[in-house]
Amino acid sequence: MARQCELSGVKPIVGNLVSHSNVKTKRRFLPNLVNVTLKSDKLDRSFSMRIAAKTLRTVDKLGGLDGYLAKAKEDKLSPKALKIKRDLEKQAAEAAEA
Question: What are phi and psi of 54, to 5 degrees?
């Protein structure tokens, strides 16, 4: 399983561990990934995802999974999240027609 957020695309980054004597050693900063179940109000379904903790705060701020996916760029989303976004758009288009 990749260490990548399914919604925001956050991945590990590389930096230096600096000792007291200023010796620099390469290290990785891993994202704080958590397993959560997010509910889509419009689709009336729940989705299990592995997302970063800071992304979870943003999802809460934007009004849930539906609000987050409406503003999210498609190149950052995982295939699973992209399918959910397309399902939401399809349902909104059908509601606009009716």
Answer: -70, -30
